[in-house]
Known about the structure:
311 residues, alpha/beta, TIM Barrel, Four Helix Bundle (Hemerythrin (Met), subunit A), 2 domains, 7-stranded parallel beta sheet, 7 strands, 46% helix, 12% strand
Amino acid sequence: MLDWTDRFCRYFLRLISGRAVLYTEMVTTSALLHGDREYLLRFDPLEHPVALQLGGSDPGELAQSARFGEQWGYDEINLNLGCPSDRVQSGRFGACLMAEPKLVAECIQAMIDSVEVPVTVKQRIGIDHLDSYQQLCDFIGILSSAGCATFIIHARKAWLSGLSPKENREIPPLDYATVYRLKREFAHLEIIINGGITTPTACAKHLTQVDGVMIGREAYHNPWMLVETEARLYGGAQLTSNREQVIQRLVPFVRRELARGVPLNRITRHILGLYHGQPGARLWRRYLSEHSGKNGATAELLLAAAEQLIK
Ligand SMILES: Cc1cc2nc3c(=O)[nH]c(=O)nc-3n(C[C@H](O)[C@H](O)[C@H](O)COP(=O)(O)O)c2cc1C
């Protein structure tokens, strides 16, 4: 998620969830080919399994970008076919590519030919007036013939004009039944459902119909739901750590990053939701927000913030 799932956020989430596959923000091929690759691709080994999400529509550039991702050690390369922003459309990538299945198939083919790791897509159930079930099936069929075997499907369509990206995550209605139906009719494909999933119970319910669930906003705002979800799906033994242990384990990472010159609030902004729904949640958020930006703030601030909650 752009601006959210940077490497700091992912490191923190990995301390919370041992099993979830973590996804980068979308990185465009032009940024990767012409920009600061070290900055864009760097991640901590602890983050595995971690997928690199690419935005682009040129088969050659996507192939090269996928190779960079594999060389850097990413476990999966994912192509964004779901983002509806104007900026992304003018670059001819994201959700507008759902109108160009042949081009997308060429992109997928070129990426698959270039890397050993899985190449996956993240898409919508439709865009604009290309939103019939048959059109969705045709799209999936063409990509699957090109070699794509895993589809992460945001279970709502996107309107490419008239709605902001935020509205496109809220206004078009969720349609889980369509994703379930896809799984039934493309049983050999891995179908992962996304959109509006916020509880362990909902995850368990979806998993009776599809192969996986992707959780976006709730995992960011209420990361502890990942612990509860793992406990629900894999058994209580997973519930080994508590929030304070997560903070303890984060501190050495924060010290290392501060020593490299990273400002503390670039990391703490992602951990504000750790106590979501708990007594002291507001205190935690307020303490971190007030103090993280101060000159000379150190990693010990996290411990001090946690101590405030015990008092
Ligand atoms: C701030 C923000 C940034 C996002 N950036 C991306 C992105 O870079 N790539 C992507 O595939 N989806 C992106 N999304 C969409 C989410 O991945 C997800 O599909 C959407 O929020 C619906 O799932 P949810 O209800 O679990 O959040 C973003 C969402 C948000 C809120």
